[in-house]
Amino acid sequence: MLQPPERVVAVLVAYNRRDLLQDALDALADQERPVDAICVVDNASTDDSSAVARAHRARPEVLRLERNTGGAGGFAAGMAHAVEAMGADLLWLMDDDTIPTPTALGELLEACARYPGTVDVAGSRVVWVDGRDHPMNTPRRRPGVSAAEVAAASTAGAVPVRSSSFVSMLVRTDAVRAHGLPVADYFIWNDDFEYSCRLLKHGTGLHVPASVVEHRTKVFGATDADPGERFYFEVRNKVWMLTRSGALTPLERVLYAGASVRRWARTFARSEARGVLVRAGARGLRDGVLRSPRATRLVLDDLPVTAAVRQVELGAGS
């Protein structure tokens, strides 16, 4: 007996980029394998992003938040709503500057179908506006992967990975229910790294090069480009991930800590505002050491998605 196709809900987080949002929704509407539903999370935009979404031919469901919860909070809110209220089997996560090519979703689903096992996370190849691979969204190949796992991924036209990016990440709802939501208190930066590592500590993740999306950032660059005051979030959240999250093994904590220090050194060396980085980094280090991230259900407690968030979070791991 044939199984019914899985229901894919795209969760798109938007903030004050109405033109990019229009383009992203156009691209979602033009998928060769149509999405079954779209949830646009408007993170308290001060432009007309919500109106743009509501008027779009894709007919997305708009979840308007009355305060900006950052990418981390926006994805947590949208994922909870899609799981609890929209009947999602799979969540396709992206920002409003992510423009999928017409075959992007179909290629992700095809890779998952061809893989001889359950795929928890599948990510697309991310390119910049000129077609170059975007260094901000470089997938991390799973270290120590066996030849058998490489071969299994190869049959699906994919590569096994340890983490993925919210710039086109397909996530199985069962994995969300098992492991919970992104940590909303991260606000921005490292939220997708922590979340995907948490899902893939014992799960299966694939990078699918045939699935291509365009990441329309203003400039072509990696995460160690000069971040200014936002360096606070990079340092605080990385400390939180290394010391508070269960997403990494002990060896991975050591390796990623060393990689982070090297990246911060590169950021500092290239910066034209080193004083800003020193002050922001010092505050991030202080808060990362002295504070812990709050539970996502507490961070989003005053928003319309409270019940859905609590349902997912409190059921995780039970």
What does this structure look like?
With 318 residues, this protein is of the alpha/beta class. It is 43% helix and 18% strand. The chain has twelve helices and ten strands. Strands 1, 2, 3, 4, 5, 6, 7, 8, 9 and 10 form a ten-stranded mixed beta sheet that branches. The longest helix has 21 residues, at 250-270. It is globular, with a radius of gyration of 19 Å. The two termini are 31 Å apart. The mean pLDDT is 93.
Concise summary:
This protein is an alpha/beta fold and 318 residues long.
Termini gap: 31 Å
Strand content: 15-25%
Give the biggest sheet.
Answer: 10 strands, mixed
Rounded average pLDDT: 93
Order of helices and strands: EHEHEHEEHEEHEEHHEHHHHH
Q: What's the shape?
A: globular
State the helicity in percent bands.
40-55%
Task: Provide keyphrases for this structure.
single chain; globular; 318 residues; alpha/beta; 43% helix; 10 strands
Indicate the topology:
Elements lengths: L7 E7 L3 H12 L7 E7 L5 H7 L5 E5 L4 H16 L4 E6 L2 E3 L3 H11 L6 E7 L12 E2 L5 H9 L3 E5 L5 E4 H7 L11 H10 L4 E11 L15 H14 L5 H21 L3 H17 L5 H4 L6 H10 L3
Parallel strand pairs: 1-2, 1-4, 2-3, 6-10
Antiparallel strand pairs: 4-9, 5-10, 6-9, 7-8, 8-10
Helix pairs in contact: 1-2, 3-12, 8-10
